[in-house]
Amino acid sequence: MKEITYEELKRLSGDSYQLIDIRDEGLTAYGIIPGAVNIYVEDLENSSILADIPKEKKLIFYCEIGRMSREIDDTLECFEGRDCYSLSEGYVGYIRAGIKSDTDKEAKRKKAEDSIKKKFHKQLFSPFAKACKTYKLIEEGDHIAVCISGGKDSMLMAKLFQEIKLHRQVEFDLTFLVMDPGYNSENRALIESNAEALGIPVTIFESTIFDAVDTIEKNPCYLCARMRRGYLYSKAKELGCNKIALGHHFDDVIETILMGMIHSGQVQTMMPKLHSTNFEGMQLIRPLYLVRESDICAWRDYNDLHFLQCACHFTDTCTTCHEDGTTSSKRLETKKLIAELKKSNPFVEFNIFRSVENVNLDTVIEYKQKGVRHNFLDEY
Length: 380
Known about the structure:
Elements lengths: L2 E2 L1 H5 L6 E5 L3 H4 L8 E2 L9 H5 L5 E5 L4 H4 L13 E4 L2 H12 L3 H13 L3 H14 L8 E5 L4 H16 L5 E8 L4 H13 L4 E5 L2 H5 L6 H19 L4 E3 L4 H15 L8 E3 L7 E3 L7 H10 L25 H17 L3 H8 L10 E4 L2 E4 L5
Parallel strand pairs: 1-5, 2-3, 2-4, 4-5, 6-7, 6-9, 7-8, 9-11
Antiparallel strand pairs: 10-11, 12-13
Helix pairs in contact: 5-9, 12-14, 12-15
């Protein structure tokens, strides 16, 4: 399919073309280009939306980085008589173009910080501070490596850490750590641009994780996530840190609980903090533990911020990487299930969360503790 750049697109009349986003729900949830319609790539031939677009309009397709849209077969019957293009560099290219045109970075940073202090204080800073206090995530003398992937969650986490440090209830140090596992130059530049615009002084180091898992066919995301964590622990320890902070939020926690039951037949949760088993003296903390994803999205959109969700070069449809080996489609399924249950029970999300705080061992048939299985018959 012929390609068109975003700069060329801007020179066209808005009435002369129709943008079509072919990404899945996991990616479109992070934003679409204004004026675009969403038709998942597998539904193009049977889409009534496509049939309703006037034939004189150019059809301009885009995906995450421009690969899937470039490979669309424009000889399909549904494209007959139409002028079709692939948007070069896809949605990521659109985001980068916006960042380049944003000259007043100081105003952007100030607005983002002010919104945390005022408009979103109750939704973001309060639950962040509550998690830190409840689970003792920040302690006197800590040196915390705030791990930034380039997504909305880790970028907000960095800003919340900067804000809570101003309160000076305990003395601690921060290093904002970005690992480049093999990003293409455009994705790395996007992370650096966002960090600069938000006033986050990042420390970047390289690894070869993408190359290492490139030939892995089974669960490459699982291996990638495990390797990422190991590299982060190692670099953080080298820099004198005793903790690494990851950007998992409340919704990640309840989805993990439900997915463990449905797909793995086990009851477990994503813990707010963990001791590292391989790096002595190191801990992992999750300070967004009580923060809702919808509130993170609201902060992002209010400040007109655009972040990477996944910079993996293996697939345009990889919307997230989880160390438990679960796929993005399973996560999306679980999100939809919780949303459906919420229609009849508005408290379902908090009940799922509380279920792992209210475990009654007297009514559990069997459980594991420190690798040892205990059966109710042991003390019956």
